């Protein structure tokens, strides 16, 4: 008996010493690319075009994938030409084993272009831990969803989550969705179907290239009970900033911006600022008024980051000294010892940060 136990434990430690998790994953994935002892993997099992330059990928997930609640974002890592690239996307629940990733090709976007144009069924993606504040449990009787362009993806996920949890039977949900043209409207058929099946759901699609119908006060005036409405907005930074000021009297307001389109092109911001990186013991000149993260990357420094949208907190570091400006809403911050998200802040004076 003792001899058998001894042999087993000897075998386990031998297996452990000759087979680390990397090797084990390598051999498991020879049998099935979704098998892994510790990696959250998803396989593309279906790909369909859902609007101009926009595809939906149905992903089969392995048991390690943590599914976020509807409206949250997942870090998604793809391998392109032997390199790993991580981006953040909102995933829609399909069933217990599948999620849907909807991606719109972004101008000069390496990952979005690859996913839209080159990805194929059978390709494997890695999914990180979900995060984000937009979630489907809403405490008010009304929910207003404002989406511009790719900002529709977390809203689709929320709508599908509300359908599946039957909350659409009781909560009144209105979606306002801005796209350039009719061809850019993703999931128009799906939205029509939901509005036909749920009396509490309504939606409007605005085509900005046909008429100037950008988000404005008239959209606020349409609402009957702003004080009893939760408002979620997702779109480019200018859109998110407008939503913040127009809907400031809502019962709850949550905005997410996925690009820095408005404030980072401020022509009044000129000149350079010195940024001292205490951990690396370096001082670097970066352009005033541009994202600190992007500016450091241009200088060959690779700070830790995830979403690049100010949501995941992965880029946050301590600011010991200096003034910064939030590129999403223009807010200035002169306080030291503030946790600074370098992806969405620019330097306004010489800075000392803990990087
Ligand atoms: S990279 Fe996600 S908050 Fe900055």
Please tell me about this protein's structure.
This protein is of the alpha+beta class and 355 residues long. It folds into three domains: 33-127, Translation factors (Elongation Factor Tu (Ef-tu), domain 3), CATH 2.40.30; 142-257, Rossmann fold (3-Layer(aba) Sandwich); 272-353, Ubiquitin-like (UB roll). The chain has helices spanning 2-18, 21-31, 110-118, 152-164, 188-197, 217-221, 237-246, 292-298; strands at residues 41-51, 54-61, 73-80, 83-93, 98-104, 124-127, 142-148, 172-179, 201-207, 229-235, 252-257, 272-277, 282-287, 316-321, 324-326, 332-333, 338-341, 345-347, 351-353. The protein has a six-stranded antiparallel barrel with strand order 1-2-5-4-3-6. It has a five-stranded parallel beta sheet with strand order 9-8-7-10-11, sandwiched between helices. A hairpin with a 2-residue loop joins strand 3 (73-80) and strand 4 (83-93). The chain is globular, with a radius of gyration of 23 Å. Mean pLDDT is 86; it is low at 1-5, 7-12 and 261-266. Bound molecules: FE2/S2 (inorganic) cluster. Residues 305-308, 310-315, 341, 343 line the site of FE2/S2 (inorganic) cluster. GO terms for molecular function: iron-sulfur cluster binding; oxidoreductase activity. It holds the Pfam family NAD_binding_1. Residues 37-137 form the FAD-binding FR-type domain. InterPro entries: 2Fe-2S_ferredoxin-like_sf, 2Fe-2S_ferredoxin-type, Beta-grasp_dom_sf, Cbr1-like_FAD-bd_dom, FAD-bd_FR_type, FNR_nucleotide-bd, MRET, OxRdtase_FAD/NAD-bd.
């Amino acid at each position: 008996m003792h001899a058998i136990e001894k042999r087993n434990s000897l075998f386990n430690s031998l297996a452990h010493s000759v087979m680390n998790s990397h090797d084990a994953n390598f051999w498991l994935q020879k049998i099935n690319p979704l098998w892994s002892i510790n990696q959250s993997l998803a396989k593309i099992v279906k790909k369909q075009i859902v609007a101009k330059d926009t595809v939906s990928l149905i992903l089969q997930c392995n048991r390690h994938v943590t599914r976020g609640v509807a409206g949250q974002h997942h870090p998604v890592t793809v391998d392109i030409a032997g390199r790993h690239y991580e981006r953040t996307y909102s995933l829609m629940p399909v069933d217990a084993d599948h999620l849907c990733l909807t991606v719109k090709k972004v101008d000069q976007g390496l990952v979005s272009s690859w996913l839209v144009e080159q990805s194929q069924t059978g390709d494997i993606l890695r999914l990180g831990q979900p995060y984000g504040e937009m979630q489907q449990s809403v405490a008010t009787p009304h929910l207003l969803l404002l989406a511009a362009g790719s900002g529709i993806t977390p809203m689709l996920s929320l709508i599908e989550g509300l359908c599946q949890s039957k909350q659409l039977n009781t909560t009144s949900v209105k979606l306002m969705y801005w796209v350039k043209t009719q061809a850019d409207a993703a999931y128009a058929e799906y939205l029509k179907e939901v509005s036909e099946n749920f009396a509490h759901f309504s939606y409007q699609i605005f085509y900005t290239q046909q008429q100037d119908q950008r988000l404005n006060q008239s959209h606020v005036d349409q609402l009957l009970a702003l004080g009893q409405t939760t408002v979620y907005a997702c779109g480019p930074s200018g859109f998110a900033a407008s939503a913040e000021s127009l809907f400031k009297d809502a019962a709850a307001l949550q905005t997410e911006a996925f690009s820095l389109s408005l404030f980072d092109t401020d022509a009044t911001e000129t000149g350079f600022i010195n940024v001292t990186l205490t951990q690396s013991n370096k001082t670097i000149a970066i352009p005033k008024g541009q994202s600190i993260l992007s500016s450091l990357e241009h200088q060959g420094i690779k700070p830790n980051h995830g979403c690049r949208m100010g949501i995941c907190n992965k880029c946050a570091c301590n600011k010991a000294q200096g003034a910064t400006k939030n590129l999403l809403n223009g807010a200035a911050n002169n306080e030291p010892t503030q946790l600074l998200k370098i992806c969405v802040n620019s330097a306004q004076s010489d800075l000392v940060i803990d990087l």
